[in-house]
Amino acid sequence: MIRVLIADDEPMIRAGVRAVLTTAPDIEVVAEAADGHDAVELARRHRPAVAVLDIRMPGLGGIEAAAEIRSAVPATGVVMLTTFGEDDYILRALGGGASGFLIKSGEPEELIAGVRAVAEGAAYLSPKVAARVVAHLAATGAGALAGRRSTARAQVDALTAREREVLTFLGSGLSNGQIARRLHVVEGTVKAHVSSILAGLGVDNRAAAAVVAHEAGIVPPPP
């Protein structure tokens, strides 16, 4: 059973997230919080597999709460909930330890898929979030975007063919186990590839690697 903590300052959003997650037979909501401080305390107390946090909350925000939760309870993965127009927050959260990013207005199936992926140690970047990140980078100017894409492609080209293949699956939100089944290898081999990919790309986590994969254009665009 995947134990989940929900934190959002809007009661209706919390109720909606809880309603979606409880439709999954393998997910249990064990605690709810209305702000970041309570989320950190409840994470320490309940030690959930996944914390689903609003990216902006009064007091201690979601990004700061994510960093504290990852420090206090390293086994807890973090999924950030965001809305359109919060692209700066998404980019900041990439370095804060979050492993999943979802749009609040997205499909319910994405929320369940994201929680399951993060519980398995994967990164989950909603296709809409990935599109928003790329669009936000484009807004910084064509030259800056071209530079980021060129850098990302150079980083990816420096990987081995197998590492690029693994990165494509990682960028699509697959867990190590799912990638292993796709490639017909053991999960330990995939873990070794992922570690090598993170080092080769110079990033700290799978979500950041997923962004590089999208920037490099090796992940199919969202529908």
UniProtKB/TrEMBL annotation:
Signal peptide extent: none
Domain named HTH luxR-type: residues: 152-217
A Pfam family recorded for this sequence: GerE
InterPro entries, per database record: CheY-like_superfamily (IPR011006), NreC/VraR/RcsB-like_REC (IPR058245), Sig_transdc_resp-reg_C-effctor (IPR016032), Sig_transdc_resp-reg_receiver (IPR001789), Tscrpt_reg_LuxR_C (IPR000792), WalR-like (IPR039420)
4-aspartylphosphate sites (modified residues): 54
Gene3D superfamilies reported for this sequence: 3.40.50.2300
Name the UniProt record assigns to this protein: Response regulator transcription factor
Domain Response regulatory: 3-119
Domain of life: Bacteria
An individual GO BP term: phosphorelay signal transduction system
Classification via PROSITE patterns: HTH_LUXR_2, RESPONSE_REGULATORY
Keywords associated with the record: DNA-binding, Phosphoprotein, Transcription, Transcription regulation
GO molecular function: DNA binding
